[in-house]
C-alpha cells in the first residue's frame, strides 16, 4: 500500500543555508507520525515545505502517490493537507465562528461545513460557548484549540500540527494532547511537530528525531521513548 504522504530526500534552503538536508519519511493513513528535535532542527521548515509555503531545493514529496512539487499552497489545502502553524495565526478581530469558517474557505457544502463546525465545538466546548466573541480574547491554549479546529474545517486527509503545546500551561497542554489522541482514535492522520518529546512520542505510532536538518533516529513512538540517547537528549534524563 502506498503511504498517504511520502517524503524522499527532501532538501530545503533559505538562500545558501540548507535547513533541511535530505530527509525521508512516510505517513501512512490513520497514523500519527511525529518529528521531534531541538530548536532549529528543521521541523517547521519541513511542514512549511509540505504545505507549499516554501519550495524544496531537491527531493520529492508525494501525496496519495502524486508529486506535490510546484503545486501552490491553496491547491495543496484542496488536495487534503491542512496545516496548523506554529504561533497559531488566528485572526484576533474576527469571531471564533468566523475563524472556523475561514478554515472551510474551499468548501461549498453548507451542510457539511455546519456539521464540522459543530464537531469542532464538540471537540472544544469552550469554542462553542464563545463562538460570537473575538478570537483575540481567547487564552493561548484556547487559541491553539481554535487553530486546530480551523485546520480540521478543511476536512483534511492529513493534519499537520506545528508545536501545538508551545507556551501552554501543563493543564492546557494535557488537554491539547488528549484532543490529538481523540482525533487519532477517530482515524485522523496526523503529522505532529513537537518539542515536548515525551508527549509527542507517547501518542505517536512513528517518530523521527531531527538534528540540524537531518533525521538521526527513527522508530515507533515507544521505541524512541525508551531509547537511551533520546531519553538523555530530549527527556531530560542524565
Ligand atoms: P523551532 O522549533 O525553533 O521552530 P525547527 O526545528 O522548526 O525549530 P526551523 O524553524 O525549521 O527549525 O529552522 C531550521 C533552520 O532554518 C534554523 O537554523 C533556522 O534559523 C533557519 N531558518 C528558519 N527560518 C528561516 C528564514 N526565514 N530565513 C533564514 N533561515 C531560517
UniProtKB/TrEMBL annotation:
MF terms in GO: ATP binding; ATP hydrolysis activity; branched-chain amino acid transmembrane transporter activity
Coiled-coil residues: none
InterPro entries to which the protein is assigned, alphabetical: AAA+_ATPase (IPR003593), ABC_branched_ATPase_LivF/BraG (IPR030660), ABC_transporter-like_ATP-bd (IPR003439), ABC_transporter-like_CS (IPR017871), BCAA_Transport_ATP-bd_LivF (IPR052156), P-loop_NTPase (IPR027417)
Superkingdom, taxonomy of origin: Bacteria
Keyword set, alphabetical order: Amino-acid transport, ATP-binding, Nucleotide-binding, Transport
CDD domains per the UniProt record, alphabetical: ABC_TM1139_LivF_branched
SMART domains: AAA
Biological processes, Gene Ontology terms: L-amino acid transport
UniProt KW DNA repair keyword: no
Every ABC transporter domain range: 5-237
Pfam family, any one: ABC_tran
Family under the similarity heading: Belongs to the ABC transporter superfamily.
Name of this protein: Branched-chain amino acid ABC transporter ATP-binding protein
Species for this entry: Streptomyces bingchenggensis (strain BCW-1)
Amino acid at each position: 500500500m502506498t503511504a498517504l504522504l511520502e517524503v524522499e530526500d527532501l532538501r530545503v534552503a533559505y538562500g545558501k543555508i540548507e535547513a533541511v538536508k535530505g530527509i525521508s519519511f512516510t505517513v501512512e493513513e490513520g497514523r500519527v507520525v511525529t518529528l521531534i528535535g531541538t530548536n532549529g532542527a528543521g521541523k517547521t521548515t519541513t511542514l512549511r515545505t509540505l504545505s507549499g509555503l516554501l519550495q524544496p531545493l531537491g527531493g520529492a514529496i508525494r501525496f496519495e502517490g502524486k508529486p506535490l512539487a510546484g503545486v501552490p499552497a491553496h491547491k495543496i489545502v484542496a488536495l487534503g493537507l491542512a496545516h496548523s502553524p506554529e504561533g497559531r495565526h488566528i485572526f484576533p478581530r474576527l469571531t471564533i465562528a468566523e475563524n472556523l469558517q475561514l478554515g472551510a474557505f474551499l468548501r461549498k457544502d453548507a451542510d457539511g461545513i455546519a456539521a464540522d463546525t459543530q464537531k469542532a465545538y464538540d471537540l472544544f466546548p469552550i469554542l462553542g460557548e464563545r463562538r460570537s466573541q473575538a478570537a483575540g480574547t481567547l487564552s493561548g491554549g484556547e487559541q491553539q484549540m481554535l487553530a486546530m479546529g480551523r485546520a480540521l474545517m478543511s476536512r483534511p486527509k492529513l493534519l499537520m500540527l506545528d508545536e501545538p503545546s508551545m507556551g501552554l500551561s501543563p493543564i492546557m497542554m494535557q488537554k491539547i494532547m488528549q484532543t490529538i489522541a481523540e482525533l487519532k482514535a477517530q482515524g485522523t492522520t496526523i503529522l505532529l511537530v513537537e518539542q515536548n518529546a515525551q508527549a509527542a512520542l507517547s501518542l505517536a505510532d512513528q517518530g523521527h528525531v531531527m538534528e540540524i536538518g537531518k533525521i538521526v533516529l527513527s522508530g515507533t513512538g515507544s521505541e524512541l521513548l525508551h531509547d537511551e540517547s533520546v531519553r538523555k537528549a530530549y527527556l531530560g534524563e542524565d
